[in-house]
Amino acid sequence: MGVEMEEGVKDSAPSTPKSRLTNQSKALLSMRLLQILLLFFVLTLGISVVSIHMIKFLKIQHFAPVVPTTLISMNDHSTLTLESFIRPPSNAWHTMNDSELLWRASMEPQRNGYPFKRVPKLAFMFLTKGPLPFAPLWEKFFKEHDGLYSIYVHALPNYKSDFSKSSVFYRRYIPSQAVTWGEMSMGEAERRLLANALLDISNEWFVLLSESCIPLRGFSFIYSYVSGSRYSFMGCADEEGPDGRGRYKPELEPEVTLSQWRKGSQWFEINRKLAVEIVQDTIYHPKFKEFCTPPCYVDEHYFPTMLSIKHRILLANRTLTWTDWSRGGAHPATFGKPDVTESFLKKLPGAKSCLYNDKQSEVCYLFARKFAPSALEPLLQLAPKILGF
């Protein structure tokens, strides 16, 4: 029995190394499978990354030629071109309120030069109650000068114009508000005109006129005179007495001090830089609106004071619009049919000596007021000979 037990022991002893070898083989096989799977994962991830970069690269190559000239909308597939940005509105009417209009008009390119051919234009801005009695005269004035001017008319809100499609005043009335003489509503109407005119990127000079204003020279002369000037034409005098410094309100401090207070004619001509300054102003406007009330007249002090403080060196300190204040009173003299003669019109452009580009000039005025509607007939007769159109 003892032998059998020993043989049994001998028969079972060799099975231990064989079991160990089998376990090691299984472990090695599992390790290799894991390595293969890991390698496969790494290769797959690498191929995916390369594919993504290739797709991006190919897309960039595909769109690269379009980027410099148009902006692509991936939502509606439409394009925004430079032409759509610089094309002036065909109609002066719009649906913006004043806040929206002033915000939009204050946007100006900060880069020098233009990436297109720009012909600078004169913007003629008429501040009127409604009708334009001298429209036939202005029609002759603008004739054959398309592309060199723009027209904007601010009338009372309820006024409806009836100009035909052939008229230069057709669809040139802008959205307006009621205006009270001497108060901030007058200054706001002028800002409204400037803001509408600034929407046309080609408008470079801005002339404020009334319905009683007439031109004293032909269009070509006026265009050359304005475009050739180094200065904008706005009065900014430091005037003593009750009608000058006497209108100053201490409540305007600290934005405006007495020494900075200025007075000028309501009728002006300014360049684009100063027009933008006016429409983007949020410092002086609230002060003048609250404290400059009659006998402080906004139209004679707001713009002259503000622009004198910020850009005095750019102002000629005179107006281009002649008026006759010799009769006294709050308003200048009005001229009707009997007053309009050849000798009367000839003397108006050089009614007084003045400087033009820092040199003496014989021509000081390009426009004149106030003229009654009855003056239209003699003006149309004398225009070819005296006014040059």
UniProtKB/TrEMBL annotation:
InterPro entries: BC10-like, Glyco_trans_14. It is a single-pass type II membrane protein. Residues 1-20 are annotated as: Disordered. It is found in: Membrane. Keywords: Glycoprotein, Glycosyltransferase, Membrane, Transferase, Transmembrane, Transmembrane helix. This is Glycosyltransferase BC10. The keyword Transmembrane helix applies. The keyword Transmembrane helix applies. One of its GO terms (cellular component) is membrane. It holds the Pfam family Branch. The chain crosses the membrane at residues 33-55. Coiled coil: none annotated. PANTHER family: CORE-2/I-BRANCHING BETA-1,6-N-ACETYLGLUCOSAMINYLTRANSFERASE FAMILY PROTEIN-RELATED (PTHR31042), CORE-2_I-BRANCHING BETA-1,6-N-ACETYLGLUCOSAMINYLTRANSFERASE FAMILY PROTEIN (PTHR31042:SF81). One of its GO terms (molecular function) is glycosyltransferase activity. Its main location: membrane.
